[in-house]
Amino acid sequence: MMNWHCITKEEAEKTLQTSIDKGLSKKEVLKRQKKYGLNILAAKKKKNIIIKFFNQFADFMIITLICAALISFLVSLLHGELDFVDPIIILLIITLNAILGVLQETKAEKSLEALQKMSAPTAHVLRDGIITSVDAKELVPGDIIYLETGHFVPADGRLITATNLKVDEASLTGESHPVEKEADIVLKEDALLADRSNMVTATGIVTYGRGTAIVTATGMNTEVGHIAKLIMEDDTPMTPLQKRLASTGKALGIAALLICIVIFIIGILKNRPIFDMFMTSVSLAVAAIPEGLPAIVTIMLSLGVQRMAKKNAVIRKLPAVETLGSATVICSDKTGTLTQNKMTVTELASIHGKERPDSSYSQLLLTLTSLCNDSILQVTNKGKHSSVSATGEPTEKAFILAAYQCGILKPQLDLNNPRIHEIPFDSTRKLMTTVHREASGNIRSITKGAPDILIPKCTHVYQNGREIPMTQTHIKFMEKQNQSMAERALRVIAVAYKNISSSDITNYNPSKRSVSNLEFKKPLESGLILVGLIGMIDPPREEVAEAVLTCQMAGIKPVMITGDHVSTACAIAKELGIMGSGDLAMTGAELARIDNDTLVEQIHRYSVFARVSPEHKVRIVKAFQAREEVVAMTGDGVNDAPALKAADIGCAMGITGTDVAKNAADMILTDDNFATIVAAVKEGRGIYDNIKKAIHFLLSCNIGEIITIFVAILLGLPSPLLAVQLLWVNLVTDSLPAISLGVEPAAKDIMKKKPIPPNKGMFADGLVFKILFEGIMIGFLALLAFIIGIRVYDSQVITDPLLLHGNTVSIAAALVPNIGRTMSFAVLSLSQLFHSFNMRSEHSLTKIGLFSNIKLLLSFFVCGFLQVIVISFKPLANIFKVVPLNAAQWSVVLVLSFLPVVIVEIQKSMPKK
């Protein structure tokens, strides 16, 4: 293994056969990817499909059913009959269930893999002389990578440059503080991993500064790859909703088993055949327990997450889908989320007031801000036409584009005034400073930043080409200019400079073109000369005002959090409707002065938090949570990670967000748009509603099956359904219709309802009574079909007058109720299919339209067709022990099967109370 920290960066470049200036070629990258593989850690081996298949049988009720099939076969064998039909049918249905389970599991895995790809970390890399963004997994040894504040280090690398670079390597070395990095040093061979300051390692986080590095190792060859087994992720835990459903299913299962035991005992007391009662009871138990619920919920969540991804909301953690439906507060950044993130310079001001774009002041302001700037200007000439674009931070892009409009080209400025030192911008200082060597040989530092921070650091002001001492009059005038711009929703940046003598730099060497580690005798950000102010505006996104109104109708409070001036924030907030009459704004300074109890007591009155640092966000989140609010919080920076984790739903920006923010978040907004959060909340509510619909549907159907058997036995009637028929009904109704309810479009009025309280039970709002009522309704309709069948049609085959005029028990003993059982079987199945339409909405079907869920309609016809085939196709009819029905009998079946729609429609039309 090569000790890269022991050699110079030039030696590393030579050893890896790469170019610091151009990087690798695309051809060479492909060649090395074949040699070294992808830059990923080895994951746990996936279960093969056979293991997945057999895992489907590791369920108490499935094992019980297999036992029942074996007992059925053994009993028939002891009776001298080789009856394979029942056991084979039971095993076939179990196998079909297992196949469906494997398909569902595989689909869920693929969905998660797709989402992981969407939220995978990226790397900025130099290839063929062009800086490009690629998936981190595509990196190879020899690649030249660029590192900036907030980035994850994507692979191990030897540093080429390091400008104030600090990297958090705690996940690998245990070092609690970020490590300062240096590119130009060479270390001893025995230097510990934590002391290798000229190296960066995969999983590190850049907390400050920037740098470049040559990739020395990828994937399992990295330092973290050597201990990959220790950091491999465990299996995804169950979501809270899945746990609640598993608990509910268990309770229902116990209840169903008790009922089945009671049915079995009653059947024995009424002299029913023990074997038949055993098979009926076991089959009923399996049919009654909604063992498919967890799988159906997983499918619904998976489908919902895919829909949300298409709408620019990538869910990283499944519980976030559930939590979204309960959100009561959305705290959002202003820039880029509520606005277009297209900053445009609209006003320039000096000590004389507003300046024209072609004035000498404006020229100087735009020149200085173009130099103190990390953005890149790209001008493409195409014949007579040329196009211009900029890459970088939005504010800085606005400066260089405005300068370009005035004939000032940043690339030319950088060439004539090389940067020899810098203090990068950070949210604590709210300033950025660069030092340049001018063409004349003079050294000048340029500082830009927040006016309220920068102006107090100035001792002079630039006026008519002279640098005059700053007075209180100057300060008040500039503050007034700043206030005027801010009140018009402009973002204001102050610009200053100072000239530096080479004697004030201890290690300055004029012969070196670029120097990064200079030492200054005096602070760079003091004794400055103020030049003026630049005002910009970032217009609100067109769709946000409507999204804010939707939030407010949905009982969700939108809150703006920004680092901008309070006047700017309030102006935008009022325009968007976030700040209404009576709402207040709070600054970061005010927030710092009040205690937590006061903040909790008063926070509901505030809709805008301005001039706040990322650290303040955590306090804001916790204050809302202390009032039992469910908080969604947006963020993009490294310092936003604590707030994203503290929030109930952390939303990271997909475009401007750092890797650290994305890793801490529950959801990533790929378009950085506030309206996407609101759309995701709507989708989250819809998913929760659909899960409730599926539970409602399955439980009411299962109770219907229990009622049918239970009441028939109590009345002394023959068993309306055989074990194999019960299993078939369960298979048909638990599959396609239940899953199709998961794609039901969200109700049009779903965002006019209040948020779902997180502690609200799944069966609240009278759902238990609805389930019981509908279960009894389905059970009695199936039983009515059975009684009509045996009284009207089966009784026609009886010729004994005594039996014709006898009691129910006599009839039951005298005949095998083939037609009655077939009609009951058909009604139980078809009525549940019709009942699935009742589940679509609490409103009438006439209001929501029959064709708004095509998948449910298709599932109805597919399952209905299967049911008709089972009864009408003689080989299948023999297996399921049913007989073909004539037109009159089918008419009775269809009328009874359709009645649940009529009854529930009447119920929906009645007052809810």
Automatic annotation (TrEMBL):
InterPro entries to which the protein is assigned, alphabetical: ATPase_P-typ_cation-transptr_C, ATPase_P-typ_cation-transptr_N, ATPase_P-typ_cyto_dom_N, ATPase_P-typ_P_site, ATPase_P-typ_TM_dom_sf, ATPase_P-typ_transduc_dom_A_sf, ATPase_P-type_domA, HAD-like_sf
Listed EC numbers: 7.2.2.10
Location of the protein in the cell: Cell membrane
PROSITE patterns: ATPASE_E1_E2
UniProtKB keywords: ATP-binding, Calcium, Calcium transport, Cell membrane, Ion transport, Magnesium, Membrane, Metal-binding, Nucleotide-binding, Translocase, Transmembrane, Transmembrane helix, Transport
Membrane topology listed for this record: Multi-pass membrane protein
Transmembrane regions listed in the UniProt entry: 53-78, 84-103, 251-269, 281-303, 694-715, 727-747, 767-790, 810-835, 856-876, 888-906
Catalytic reaction annotation: Ca(2+)(in) + ATP + H2O = Ca(2+)(out) + ADP + phosphate + H(+)
Protein name: P-type Ca(2+) transporter
SUPFAM superfamilies given in the database record: Calcium ATPase, transduction domain A, Calcium ATPase, transmembrane domain M, HAD-like, Metal cation-transporting ATPase, ATP-binding domain N
Single Gene Ontology BP annotation: export from cell
NCBIfam families recorded: ATPase_P-type (TIGR01494)
Family membership noted in the UniProt record: Belongs to the cation transport ATPase (P-type) (TC 3.A.3) family. Type IIA subfamily.
Gene Ontology CC entries for this record: plasma membrane
A Pfam family hit: Cation_ATPase_N
Domain of life per record: Bacteria
Enzyme class: translocase
GO molecular function, one term: ATP hydrolysis activity
Main localization, broad class: membrane
SMART domains reported for this sequence: Cation_ATPase_N
